[in-house]
């Protein structure tokens, strides 16, 4: 029986939250899965694309709450592939954007297991897009940075200070716990008036938004009770969004008042 098992691991990016943002290739990969290992960030509605009899294992990590360590997840991927065959590792967003997907692929490959990657739509691009924020715009922004707010040693990435010196749009993931530090770095570069949008649970029905400037955004977060998971978008392109026009007008009027 075990001789007929063909181990295979496919890393699938589940997208930013809206289940319709899963790719067709991702749907096809799930449909063929014997085992699905899925994250907290992958919308559970996506699991309907997996066969009813597929083994489904939640291996998600949330701040302060880890079902499994990364080493255990790596081992689970390999064990399930060798025992059951076709494993789909479903990860929120894109598996290679702060998703530790490369570590999982490398571990599986070290056992001689064939691996495949299905890219996912990254929240760093999709969540701003849903609010009409174009990360690049002719005459406004020529580039964008995507930075993790919290590194593996729990510190703010040094790249944030570099990004604050540029004219690029800056997108920070997992940065809410470091917001005051981020604000300080941008203020140091005299960027206090730079527009900021914070989008919590982007692309889902639970989405919440706060808009302000570097100088005001902490007050906005407190007022609107924004928290993780959220994306921080800093740059002039925030002001260019037609969808967020109401937020800017409300902000200007409250400042005049």
TrEMBL record:
Family annotation (Pfam families): TP_methylase
Residue ranges occupied by any Tetrapyrrole methylase domain in the UniProt entry: 8-217
InterPro entries noted in UniProt: 4pyrrol_Mease, 4pyrrol_Methylase_sf, 4pyrrole_Mease_sub1, 4pyrrole_Mease_sub2, CobA/CysG_C, Siro_Cobalamin_biosynth, Uropor_MeTrfase_CS
GO molecular function, one term: uroporphyrin-III C-methyltransferase activity
PROSITE patterns: SUMT_1
Domain of life per record: Bacteria
Top-level EC class: transferase
Annotated family: Belongs to the precorrin methyltransferase family.
Protein name according to UniProt: uroporphyrinogen-III C-methyltransferase
């Amino acid at each position: 029986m075990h001789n007929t098992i063909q181990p295979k691991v496919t890393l699938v990016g589940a997208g930013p939250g809206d289940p319709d943002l899963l790719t067709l290739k991702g749907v096809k990969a799930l449909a063929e899965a014997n085992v699905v290992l899925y994250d907290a960030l992958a919308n559970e509605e996506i699991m309907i694309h997996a066969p009813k009899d597929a083994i489904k294992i939640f291996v998600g990590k949330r701040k302060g709450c880890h079902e499994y360590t990364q080493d255990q997840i790596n081992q689970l991927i390999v064990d399930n592939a060798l025992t059951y065959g076709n494993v789909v590792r479903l990860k929120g967003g894109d598996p290679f954007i702060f998703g530790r997907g490369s570590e999982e692929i490398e571990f599986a490959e070290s056992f001689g297991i064939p691996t495949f990657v299905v890219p996912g739509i990254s929240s760093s691009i999709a969540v701003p897009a849903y609010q009409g924020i174009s990360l690049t715009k002719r005459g406004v922004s020529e580039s964008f940075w995507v930075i993790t707010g919290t590194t593996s040693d729990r510190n703010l990435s040094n790249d944030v200070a570099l990004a604050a010196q540029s004219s690029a749009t800056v997108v920070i993931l997992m940065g809410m716990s470091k917001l005051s530090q981020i604000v300080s770095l941008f203020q140091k570069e005299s960027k206090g008036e730079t527009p900021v949008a914070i989008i919590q649970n982007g692309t889902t029905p639970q989405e919440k938004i706060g808009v302000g400037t570097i100088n005001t955004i902490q007050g906005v977060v407190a007022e609107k009770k924004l928290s993780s998971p959220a994306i921080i978008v800093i740059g002039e392109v925030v002001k260019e969004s037609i969808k967020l026009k109401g937020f800017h007008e409300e902000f200007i009027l409250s400042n005049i008042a």
